[in-house]
Structures are given as structure tokens and as C-alpha cells.
């Protein structure tokens, strides 16, 4: 919670002045019943029109000043709550960027989105309510009681009985409904997760005719939310009848006992009216307090969820910089490397060793789940190795700054993502100052120049969300070009040409090899054909090395490799190998 308070520090002025202005409005509200009493007792009773006009004008003045105070408070509340939300959202977003894959996996991407949006909205609302109502509502409760006592302390005993009774009713209702409100929040979380998942995967859902199943899942989640909301609503619906019952009995008591006192001459009719007004004011203010409790309870849960993210620190720390040995004989070296994900004990990679030299191509092949992408994650230092030794240009990656590491490696991940914007903007991600010539060169090498040229707007062609206005193969080539623009010393393609036909794939490989005299290349592929000209191929089988060598060497030494080739190539092709 402390972590969140620092974002309010900037708005101390608004947090103090806002409630003070609201207090001015509340004071005026407490004065109004007294003026009404005076109008009745002096003006109407004495047929004194000038006095009625005088008090009427006073009422108008109080209303105008009260409204102005309320608007000023509203302004401060909006300024502080929106500013707080914006600062917090920016800080949270920046913090998430600094986290490693492990922490992001731990919370989950969709939950992070909900926390960044819904939870911060909830906190914004709470800040606005603190400024607008947190001081005003209790002040009105207390003020109404005091004002009533000022008029007639004996009759005000009705307040002293009614106020605790109303408080008990509020407590009973709130304590029963708040758990439901908490549950509603987590159910809303689940619903937004389902909505997002479904809309993201709408093509897959339709292609696999799973609409009905997904509809059922969604309906179930909506019904659960509906049930919980109804339960909370049913409890909450007792609030007004019960509190109004107490207030109406109190008003009856005030009128009954008050009328005796009016006959006795110790109280006036106007004062009775003022008493009734104070009673109503107190009830409304207590209801506001009850709503505030609900808002703050929800905000409390949201604050915990936001703080949980902010208190995470990246498990990947980059130490002091040591200069890279650019003339090192090896780009990447792994010696007996093993790795398990932080959330499991089971080794995903075991005893992996290889050396990749500058200008060389390393192919990685293996079945699904063999650990190919995981190995790439280690080279990128998305995770740290669990055992063994990993060096990049002769250095432990822990001693390379993050910027240098990212500048060194151009990664085209398996699930490539293009961002909304133009093709040029996407290309400049790796190198913001890249000129058109550099971009076209990268596009040519990635075999993407032809189709970009065919676009009417060329590099200024707009890329829709996720690159949906391009085919799978075009997206892959654009993603490869984007990685090439920054001219990385090590280019990693994680199954990034799977959607290309063999001829385009071959042209791509040729271009990459031609340009990459000094650049090392790691190619992950499920297709043996795509890797056959690599300088060495690492065969992974269930996280273990099942061979390392050239295509020809592996055909003699690695049964797993032979099996992969046999499953993909025809007998004729196999015989020609
Ligand atoms: N973040 C993670 N946390 C825990 N386990 C993971 C994580 N990511 C991957 N794994 C597990 O690690 C194993 C290897 O996954 P990896 O993605 O490296 O395989 P792969 O060879 O690239 O497979 P594919 O060819 O299907 O992409 C799998 O069993 C997977 O379940």
C-alpha cells in the first residue's frame, strides 16, 4: 500500500483543499434548516414578507456559494484522481517492462492487463471519493446531531437512538454484502479474461467450430457473475427499507414529542421542520458512508493486486558492464548447460554443449516441446541457466548490459508480432534512426521487398493490429526484416520461416548467409531441409542432445536425426542424401 501512496504525494494540495471546499458546502447544508425554521417561525408566522425575501435571498446565496465550492472540490478531485491514475499506470507499465519472463508468467499477461486497467480505475475512483465524500459524509452525520442538540437536546435524544441503530443496520448489511462484492470483482476479472481470450482466438474458435463450447463457457461465467451480483443486491436492497423505517419512526417520534413541546411553548414549528431535515440529512450521509465502505473495500483489493505487481523485482539482474570481446573466437558457447523453469524442478534442458563461431550457422532441430525455444531464451537471457556455463563473445551474459545484449542479438520469435503503425515504423523498432535504404536492404534480404513494393503506399503501408492485413508468410518475412535492420551480430530465427514455401525459404537462407560473413545465425526449424546446409546442427530430444554435427555427419551418428529426416523426406530424397 505504501508503494501506492507515493503516487498521491504530488497531489497533496488537491487532497487538502478539495475536502475543505466540500466542507464549506456541508456547513451551508447544515445552516439551511435553521434558515427554513426562521422563515416559518418569523416570516410566515409574523406575515413578514421582507424577512421571507431576505432569508430567501440568503438561501440562494448559500446555494450559489455551496455549488461553487462543490465544483471546485470536483475539479480538485478530478485532477488528483486522474493524475494519480495516469502516474500509477505509467509506473506500472514501466515496471512490467523491467520484469523478466518469469514474473510476467507468474501473474499472467491477461491479469496484468486487468490490473493496469480495471484495478487502477478502482483506485482512481477511491481517490476521487476520498476528496469528495470521505470528510463530508461523517461531518454531516456529526453536524446534524450537534445542530439538532443545539435546538433541543432532549428531543435530540431521538438522534442518539436512531444513529447507532442505523449504523448497526449498515454494519450488518455491509459485512454480509462485502464478501460478495469481492467475489464480484474476481468474477469480473475472469469474465474479462474469457472475453479477451475469445476475441483473440475468434478465428481458431470458428475454424474448429467451437463457438458453442465457448458460448457455454462465457454464459457460465456471466451467470456466476449474475448470481453473485443478485445475492449482493438482495442483501443491499434491505438497506433503504430498514434505514428509512428507523428514520420514519424517528420522524414520528420527533413530531409526536415535538408537538407536545410546541404546545408547551419550548419549541417552534420551524424547529420541528429543522429537526426532520437534520434527520434526513443524517440518513443520507450514513448511506454515503456505507457506499464509501464498499468503494474502499473494492479499492483495497485492487490496491493489493497493483502492489503485488509493483513489489515484484526482476529475477534477471544485469551487473556491471564488462567490455565484450568482439574478436572472441566464439559468438555463443554452452558447456554442460542444464535448465529448469523457476516454477518447476524438472530439467527442460540437460547437459547441452556447443560452440557457435562468428559467421557460422547453427541449426537446431527436434520434436515439439524438445526445448528449442527454451535454449534461445537462455541465450537472450530471458532466463538464467541453472547449471553449466554460457558465454556470449567470451563473456558471462550476466556481465553484459541489457542494451548491449539486446543490440547484439536480433531475435525473430516463434510467435512474431507486428505492431499497429506503418511498415517503416515497424522496421525502425530495432534501429530508430534507420533510413529507407537500410530498411529496403533488410526487406530484400528477408524476401519481403517484392510484396512491400506492390503496396500502394510502400513503406508507409499501414499494418493492422497484429499484422492481420498480411499473410502468415508475409508477417514472418516482415518480422525477419525488422530483426535484420539493426544488423545484429547474432541473428536467431525461432521457426520463423515455417510459413514460407521451400523456394522462398531457400532464397532467404542464401541471402542471410551471403550477408552474414561475420554474423552468426541460429536457425530453429522443424524442417530438416531448411537446416541441411547449416555448419552444424544440434539435435534436441526431450531436452537432451541427440547429436551435433553437419547434416552428413548426423545421418551417420544420430538415430534421432535420421528418424526426423525419414519422417519428412521421401525415400528417393533420403537415398539422395
Ligand atoms: N514459461 C514456462 N514455464 C514452464 N515450463 C515451460 C515454459 N515454457 C516452456 N515450458 C516447457 O518447456 C518445454 C520445452 O518448451 P519449448 O517451448 O522450449 O519447446 P520447443 O522445442 O520450442 O517446442 P515447439 O517446437 O513446439 O515450439 C515444454 O515441455 C514446455 O511445456
UniProtKB/TrEMBL annotation:
Membrane topology type: Multi-pass membrane protein
Pfam families found in the cross-reference section: ABC_membrane, ABC_tran
Occurrences of domain ABC transporter (ranges): 332-567
Entry's transmembrane regions: 20-40, 52-79, 125-149, 155-174, 242-260, 272-296
Molecular function in Gene Ontology: ABC-type oligopeptide transporter activity; ATP binding; ATP hydrolysis activity
UniProt entry tagged with the keyword Nucleotide-binding: yes
Main location class: membrane
Keywords tagged on the record: ATP-binding, Cell membrane, Membrane, Nucleotide-binding, Transmembrane, Transmembrane helix, Transport
Occurrences of domain ABC transmembrane type-1 (ranges): 16-298
Subcellular location: Cell membrane
One term under GO cellular component: plasma membrane
Top-level lineage group: Bacteria
Designated name of the protein: ATP-binding cassette subfamily B protein
Amino acid at each position: 500500500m505504501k508503494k501506492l501512496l507515493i503516487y498521491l504525494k504530488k497531489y497533496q494540495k488537491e487532497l487538502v483543499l478539495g475536502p475543505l471546499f466540500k466542507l464549506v458546502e456541508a456547513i451551508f447544508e447544515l445552516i439551511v434548516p435553521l434558515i427554513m425554521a426562521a422563515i416559518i417561525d418569523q416570516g410566515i408566522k409574523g406575515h413578514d414578507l421582507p424577512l421571507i425575501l431576505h432569508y430567501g435571498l440568503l438561501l440562494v446565496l448559500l446555494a450559489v456559494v455551496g455549488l461553487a465550492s462543490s465544483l471546485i472540490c470536483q475539479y480538485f478531485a478530478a485532477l488528483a484522481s486522474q493524475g494519480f491514475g495516469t502516474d500509477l499506470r505509467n509506473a506500472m507499465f514501466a515496471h512490467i517492462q523491467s520484469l523478466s519472463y518469469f514474473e510476467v508468467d507468474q501473474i499472467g499477461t491477461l491479469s496484468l492487463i486487468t490490473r493496469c486497467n480495471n484495478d487502477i480505475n478502482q483506485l482512481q475512483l477511491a481517490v476521487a471519493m476520498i476528496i469528495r465524500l470521505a470528510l463530508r459524509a461523517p461531518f454531516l452525520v456529526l453536524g446534524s446531531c450537534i445542530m439538532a442538540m443545539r435546538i433541543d437536546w432532549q428531543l435530540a435524544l431521538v438522534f442518539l437512538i436512531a444513529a447507532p441503530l442505523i449504523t448497526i443496520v449498515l454494519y450488518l448489511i455491509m459485512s454480509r454484502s462485502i464478501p460478495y462484492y469481492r467475489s464480484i470483482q474476481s468474477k469480473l476479472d475472469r469474465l474479462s479474461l474469457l472475453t479477451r481470450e475469445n476475441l483473440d482466438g475468434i478465428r481458431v474458435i470458428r475454424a474448429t467450430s467451437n463457438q458453442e463450447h465457448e458460448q457455454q463457457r462465457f454464459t457460465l461465467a456471466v451467470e456466476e457473475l449474475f448470481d453473485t451480483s443478485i445475492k449482493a443486491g438482495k442483501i443491499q436492497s434491505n438497506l433503504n427499507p430498514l434505514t428509512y423505517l428507523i428514520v420514519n419512526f424517528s420522524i414520528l417520534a420527533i413530531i409526536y414529542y415535538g408537538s407536545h413541546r410546541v404546545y408547551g411553548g419550548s419549541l417552534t414549528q420551524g424547529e420541528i421542520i429543522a429537526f426532520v431535515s437534520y434527520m434526513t440529512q443524517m440518513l443520507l450521509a450514513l448511506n454515503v458512508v456505507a457506499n464509501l465502505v464498499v468503494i474502499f473495500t473494492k479499492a483495497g483489493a485492487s490496491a493489493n493486486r497493483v502492489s503485488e505487481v509493483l513489489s515484484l523485482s526482476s529475477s534477471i539482474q544485469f551487473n556491471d558492464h564488462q567490455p565484450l570481446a568482439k574478436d572472441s573466437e566464439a559468438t555463443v558457447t554452452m558447456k554442460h548447460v542444464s535448465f529448469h523453469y523457476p516454477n518447476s524442478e524438472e530439467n527442460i534442458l540437460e547437459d547441452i554443449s556447443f560452440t557457435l563461431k562468428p559467421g557460422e550457422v547453427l541449426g537446431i532441430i527436434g520434436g515439439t516441446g524438445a526445448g528449442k525455444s527454451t535454449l534461445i531464451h537462455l541465450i537472450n537471457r530471458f532466463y538464467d541457466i541453472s547449471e553449466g556455463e554460457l558465454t556470449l563473445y567470451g563473456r558471462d551474459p550476466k556481465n553484459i548490459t541489457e542494451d548491449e545484449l539486446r543490440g547484439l542479438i536480433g531475435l525473430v520469435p516463434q510467435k512474431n508480432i507486428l505492431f499497429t503503425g506503418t511498415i517503416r515504423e515497424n522496421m525502425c523498432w530495432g534501429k530508430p534512426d534507420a533510413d529507407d535504404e537500410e530498411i529496403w536492404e533488410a526487406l530484400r534480404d528477408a524476401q519481403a521487398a517484392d510484396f512491400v513494393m506492390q503496396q500502394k503506399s510502400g513503406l508507409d503501408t499501414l499494418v493492422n493490429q497484429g499484422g492481420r492485413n498480411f499473410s502468415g508468410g508475409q508477417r514472418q518475412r516482415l518480422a525477419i526484416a525488422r530483426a535484420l535492420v539493426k544488423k545484429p551480430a547474432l541473428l536467431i530465427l525461432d521457426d520463423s520461416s515455417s510459413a514460407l514455401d521451400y523456394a522462398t525459404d531457400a532464397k532467404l537462407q542464401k541471402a542471410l548467409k551471403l550477408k552474414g560473413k561475420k554474423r552468426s545465425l541460429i536457425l530453429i526449424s522443424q524442417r530438416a531441409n531448411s537446416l541441411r546446409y547449416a555448419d552444424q546442427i544440434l539435435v534436441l530430444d526431450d531436452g537432451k542432445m541427440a547429436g551435433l554435427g553437419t547434416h552428413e555427419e548426423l545421418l551417420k551418428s544420430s538415430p534421432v536425426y535420421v528418424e526426423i529426416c525419414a519422417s519428412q523426406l521421401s525415400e528417393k530424397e533420403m537415398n539422395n542424401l
